[in-house]
What does this fold into?
Amino acid sequence: MKIQTYFLISCFLWSYTWVEAQENLVPNPGFEEVVSCVENEFAFIDKAQYWFWLNSPAFLFHECLGQAGADEQIEDLGPQAPRSGVGMAGEVVGAASGNYTDSRYTCVELIRPLVQDSLYVVSYYVNYGDSADIACSNCIDAFFFEDLHPDSIFFPSFPPQGVSMIQNPRDRILKDKTGWMQICDTLRATGKEHFLVIGSTVEYNDLILEFTGGRGELIWYYVDDVSIYKIPGGSQSKVQRYAGCETDLPLRLKGRPDFLHYHWSTGDTSAILEVWTPGIYTLTYDYGCGSLTDTFVVEIETLAPPIDLGSDRLSCESDQFVATIIDAGPDQARYIWSTGDTTSQIIATAPRTYTVKADYIYCPDRSDSIQLFPCPPRLDFIIEFPNVFTPNGDNRNDTWTGQYENIQFQRLEVFDRWGRKVFQTAQEGRAWDGRHNGENLPEGVYYYRLSFLRPVTNVMDQAKGTILLLR
It folds into this structure.
């Protein structure tokens, strides 16, 4: 088995744009929907559907008010068109006198509470009022509460304790009077975010300010296009593993859903990338005010050649089985034999059927078997007797017996020339010493008769012949 994972960084940037269908958890985010609107009348933010104010009324600017109503509101604040649509909010953050009884907070209850440990993008746009005199960097943050009542008088502790916050960078003075400035960051939810509040989170003396002229007493901003989106996938980054067999190629890397544009380093723009090679792929995508990086580890397993143990066969010398090597092929997989061995080769020591399986992780297993047949029995046999022996005590040819192969010995008998039996034995290998009843027999010709069973058939047979005894 060979699994290839090349640790070459093949970076493909995945640039995301939020799909319009992605749910914004802020109701009426652009202040377009109104509860009531009377032309040429002054309007507070609670005239916008779902929104309310705390401490002092924040303002609503909307085309339904007509020019006279709008002029009355912006007489000292400076005109501005909404960033989008026909509505926007206006907030007095504070005055140079430090009188926070005039600080306004724009509030809304979210469509649903944020989910604990999920990651969200919180974004809103602000514009510095034309007639405002003091710009700041830390005076119009976003913060969340679990419980908030629209009819309450709001004098928060600074900074608010135990709440989630989104803050503008403290070195960024918000002083653009012609364009809209985005305040955006990610928030990992605690699960207690039910209400969103936009306003100051610090005491007046702790504000980071820049005086821009005029009377030098008013901090004023417009607010529009407030959004809270849950980042698909729910975590800051992911490591995903894709693995497969080379026969499964290409592998399909699937990105997170709910985004409109996908840009891969390969030039592909679809949500799924087909890959043919192993490696580590990194994926970076932009969610508006930051980026996340996902990592894809791709493993591809290669197949060894098909297993071929060969044809069923004999492994014999004469009628005896001979141990033989059985080879499953290149050592590229985890082999499992019917014998319990796990190597690519085994030694077969007995006739039987041998089976091997190549065990892969991702590729389909392969297997083969071979039968080594039992060796067929021998039908031939050998019987050999010397035709002369000399039992004279010189320790040379003093006894006589036969040599047998592949028979079942039964009985050996020796007779003299008159037919008298002078020797017999039922013990294979017992030799005759040329005596009968302890007496030396004379020289001459003697006759033997061997009784035996033939191989395989076990048929009784006899072998006969003559012996010359010399002294």
Remarks:
- The chain is about 0% helix and 40% strand.
